[in-house]
Amino acid sequence: MAKILVCDKVSQKLIDGIQQMGHEVLYKTGMDEDELVKTVPGFNAMVVRSATKVTEKVIDAGLGSLKVIIRAGVGIDNIKHEYAKSKGIDVRNTPAASSPSVAELAIAHMFSVYRFVARSTWRLRKGDDFKKIKKESQGHELFGKTLGIIGIGRIGREVAWRAHALGMKIIAHDPYITDPGLDYVEMVSLDDLLARADIITLHVPKTDKPIIGREEIARMKDGAVIINTARGGVVDEEALLEALNSGKLWGAGIDVWENEPNINPELMNHPLVSATPHLGATTSEAQDRIGEEVLKIIKEYFG
Predict the structure, then answer these.
(1) Are residues 59 and 201 part of one domain?
(2) 121 and 222 belong to one structural domain
(3) 260 in catalytic set
(4) What kind and span of H or E run contains 185?
(5) Which residue is catalytic, options 23, 81, 157, 231?
(6) What is d(CA 268, CA 241) in angstroms, rounded to the nearest whole number?
(7) Are 41 and 66 in contact (CB under 8 A)?
(8) CA 31 from chain center: how many Å?
(9) Which of 79, 115, 179, 229 has the fewest CB atoms within 10 Å around its CB?
(10) What is the mean pLDDT of the chain?
(11) Residues 190-214 pLDDT 10s
């Protein structure tokens, strides 16, 4: 029997599944570093999502018992994964389970920005004139537009498939993938993508510096849109705000932010921004699939 520490909100099916496998589980959310350091000794596995930060101190506290840290999701930037590996602790994630949910949210933001969905809702609820809102909300169709996908891995391909069904033209850039296996996706250089795309959506891991900054925005088409459901920081938020205020960009859809949960209020409240609080994998279906992948990993290590 293994001892499993679950640190963030997960599907109840996952908790039930761990117990049915005969393992002991402590389901405790919202712990800071000090509480984690006190709690983790004696546990054989940790399960986290994006909220819990697995620092070097937390990893050190688990030495001797902790065998694996499981990220119930894709990105592992909230885990000091290289340090964990140097201490003999494996770090695993569930890369495929949430892809459809993230892809759907990216498409939802495209609709929201192009058709003023979030902005119109906000204006109606605060009592703006109905006819004025309608007059000022002439949007665009996604049909026929060019979508530039930066990162054509699992999530990027899910976005491409949906965008193709909507009649969009798909171009993509990925330094690691030359053939995504989709005949309707044209692989291009980053410069070409920036110059041609009406909408740019990012599906990449956390980066040390922004992929989209002032220079990249300057090379984009006037009136283009940026969608970020990847990781906060892959788009320079100050540069994005400047481009929205200047009219260079038509709008932006943002699910992930540089300093979550303390996000830039000016960007969040901007009338051209469709904003969500890191909801990419927050569907019941995605969480059930993530739970299934986590259970497979636990079974792999502990039977």
Answers:
(1) no
(2) yes
(3) yes
(4) strand 185-187
(5) 231
(6) 10
(7) no
(8) 22
(9) 179
(10) 96
(11) 999 999 999 999 999 989 999 999 9
